[in-house]
Amino acid sequence: MKNQVVIHTDIEKTKINKNIYGHFAEHLGRGIYEGIWVGEDSPIPNTNGIRNDVLEALKNIHIPVLRWPGGCFADEYHWKDGIGPRENRKKMVNTHWGGVVENNHFGTHEFMMLCEMLGAEPYICGNVGSGTVQEMSEWVEYMTFDGESPMANWRKENGQSEPWKLKYFGVGNENWGCGGNMRPEYYADLYRRYQTYVRNYGDNKIYRIAGGANVDDYRWTEVLMKNAHWLMDGLSLHYYTIPGEWDGKGAATDFPEDEWFTTLKKALHMDTLITRHSAIMDQYDPEKRIGMIIDEWGTWFDPEPGTNPGFLYQQNSIRDALVAGLHFNIFHKHADRVQMTNIAQTVNVLQAMILTEGEKMLLTPTYHVFDMFKVHHDASLLQVDGQFDQYQFGKESLPQVSVSASKDKDGKIHISLCNLDHKNEAELNLKLRGLDLSASQVSGKILTADEMDAHNTFDQPENVKPVAWTDVKSEGQTLSAKLPAMSVAILTVE
Ligand code: AHR
């Protein structure tokens, strides 16, 4: 049997919020320092301290929103230590991530400058776990108040006369764990209290994001929604794809066949999680006003041998590309509820887009998926129905192919495809109902590899990269193609 797919080109469902392609960069390992911030005096070419190669690469994928400063780091971060002349900034211990000294050289001003350079919306995560209400409220005043006030005046003294625009603000992170080990009832009360003082100054309107559940903790979602739904704009969810267990996650490269299958199976679990958390949210918010904000997702493997385990540095292979492609197709499917997601993390940490080693930089297979799929940003989701072959592994099986499609503002149709199967190509029949392909042009790009752990290294930075996909036939309303094993592809019909 072939994978039979119908794309209803005239059934536009909902907009795919471009923020689904958002990022997360924490003060963790070499994520910020070296990965993004090298300082103005660095021999690495930089603009105001931000390294140019990383900046250009991130601009190219149109990164829409960037979450900072954590993660677990956020609930230990005291923003006042990260402003003013850099040489005077207080040093602190980054207890969560390797116990290293954090010099606070990358603070609020540097982050806002980075977002401006990227053209990305800043998403700041505030400190509930170890910070005060006053501290959080003053941070918002510092950043956004346009007038005379202690915080606004201080910002001006530090060189920023105009307030910044700040839309997204998270009230704590993982408050069920590293953010304070709270019960949902307690956090719900704290959320109500803290968010009260996250003020809207002038025309700056903040979208408040409550700290959400860990994986399948549906009770957390229930309690938060019941007790605070009217006070939130977004509710977060965290889920990482880990082939093994927390104390033995599996290697990023050189892994056995069964770990390929398990990783993809676990990536697909995101669909179930969104469906179930959404169903709870629907009870309190049937209009879907509140966005589900999946502000941490991605693969989490054992750290690369020989690296600081607290730095969460891992390689990134064609398997990660499949995980990214599957996640995006799932996020699109739920685009009526999922308003933002942030992959963990942008550079040098977990499922990174970019790896650096001193002045060297490489783009990972995951980066290429972000690049190929950026055509979906803010496009209209199209209805897709399909019958798929099974990708069999031992006694288990998964659908062999994942598909999503959208129509952009110029009427172009983009179809994203993943073949999960590590051995067999997928025969595809894509019927674009409502379209005559004889009057259309079809082009494509594909990312694939011969090895399950194919990846890029500083010696071979282009080992895995997208190439043109021309092997697609069109007849009437139907496109047919053979999608190679282990591949992620995008087709454009115009
Ligand atoms: O992304 C790494 C860590 O994972 C984050 O700091 C934390 O929020 C999560 O547990």
Provide a descriptive summary of the structure in words:
The chain has 494 residues and is an alpha/beta fold. The protein is 24% helix and 29% strand. It has nine helices and 26 strands. It has helices at residues 52-60, 108-118, 133-144, 150-157, 184-196, 218-228, 257-284, 318-333, 365-373; strands at residues 3-15, 22-24, 46-47, 50-51, 65-68, 92-94, 100-102, 121-126, 168-171, 207-214, 234-241, 291-299, 338-344, 354-357, 360-363, 380-387, 390-393, 396-399, 401-407, 413-419, 426-433, 442-448, 467-468, 472-475, 478-483, 487-493. The strands form six sheets. Strands 23-22-26-20-19-16-1-21-25-24 form a ten-stranded mixed sheet, covered by helices on one side. Strands 2-5-8-9-10-11-12-13 form an eight-stranded parallel β-barrel, surrounded by five helices. The protein has a two-stranded antiparallel sheet with strand order 3-4. The protein is globular. The model has no long low-confidence stretch (mean pLDDT 97). Residues 26, 70-72, 173-174, 296, 344-345, 350 line the site of alpha-L-arabinofuranose. The site of alpha-L-arabinofuranose has 10 residues, from loops.
